[in-house]
Specification:
Keywords: Endoplasmic reticulum, Glycoprotein, GPI-anchor biosynthesis, Membrane, Signal, Transmembrane, Transmembrane helix
Oligomer: single chain
Radius of gyration: 33 Å
Membrane topology: Single-pass membrane protein
Structural class: alpha+beta
Main location: endoplasmic reticulum
Strand order of the largest sheet: 2-1-12-13-11-5-8-7
Organism: Geodia barretti
Protein name: Phosphatidylinositol-glycan biosynthesis class X protein
Length: 281
């Protein structure tokens, strides 16, 4: 593998098969293909297994990656390459908050907008760094499914591509990526291991969506409640205003009753609806 040039070192960009890829644009389709090609090359021999799964319900899930290996030696540092499609996102702010509590360490190919829906969002690459302390390690990455367009069924399938796995090697690597998730440099060599691939297809999460046949009833009820609330509010305000105008005449009728009562002060408020006139005993 060729040595990086001085210009490359200054730009601090990872290299895939000698092609410079900026982390800020690695989410583009052509660059995703290059990284996928690097993760599907020759295998690094190691005994073990990897399992992928989803935990949780609704729009908030956890991608669970379980790594197992036999014996000791190489295979302690790993990268789980997650292709974040437009169907879901990883909240980078949430990941930062989880770091102090042992959360996952990762690098994203760029800023991930958490407010966009499926139609407006793009794709990203996220590198999840895993260090094995024993024969088995499990890492959980929080995923959040994006809102999808309405349809004719109550649920829609969100496809989560099966992640790729890379192992750090001293030489013969097929891809150069940052050694640590805290900095884009220095770079280390990584290679796809010979762990058995998951037998299941890409992960699927069923999410609730709005139904087209509910559109008209929802609009009608919303408009009715909105105008009904406005009319009720206007009627209530009009009623209170009318009472304020008649407050003085009501006070006159109450004068005889008030003179019979014993009040602690000389001034007794006559109207409690915004009218400030008082009567002296």
């Amino acid at each position: 593998m060729r040595k990086p040039s001085l210009l490359f070192c200054l730009s601090v960009l990872p290299v895939v098969y000698g092609v410079t890829i900026d982390l800020s644009i690695i989410g583009k389709t052509e660059d995703l293909g290059k990284l996928a090609a690097a993760t599907s090359g020759s295998l690094e021999e190691i005994e073990g297994s990897v399992e992928y799964g989803l935990e949780g319900e609704g729009y908030h899930r956890d991608l669970v990656v379980t790594l197992k290996r036999q014996g000791r030696g190489r295979g302690t540092d790993w990268i789980v390459v997650v292709n974040v499609t437009s169907q879901f996102y990883i909240d980078l702010d949430q990941i930062s908050q989880m770091a102090a509590f042992g959360g996952p360490d990762l690098i994203s190919s760029g800023h991930i907008n958490t407010e966009q829906n499926v139609a407006d969002s793009g794709s990203h690459i996220v590198l999840v760094y895993v260090t094995m302390r024993g024969s088995e390690t499990e890492v959980k990455v929080p995923l959040h499914l994006r809102y999808q367009a309405t349809g004719s069924t109550p649920y829609s399938a969100a496809i989560i591509p099966t992640p790729h796995l890379l192992m750090k090697v001293p030489e013969g690597g097929t891809v150069s990526l940052p050694c640590f998730p805290t900095s884009p440099s220095p770079l280390c060599l990584w290679r796809r291991p010979s762990l058995p691939a998951p037998s299941h297809p890409p992960l699927v999460a069923m999410v609730p969506i709005g139904q087209n046949n509910h559109l008209i009833p929802v609009v009608v009820v919303t408009v009715f409640l909105t105008f009904g609330s406005m009319l009720y509010l206007m009627q209530t305000l009009s009623h209170l205003t009318s009472k304020d105008k008649n407050c003085e005449s009501v006070n006159i009728n109450l004068m005889d009753i008030e003179r019979v009562l014993v009040f602690p002060s000389k001034e007794v408020p006559i109207c409690h609806l915004g009218f400030n006139k008082t009567s002296e005993l």
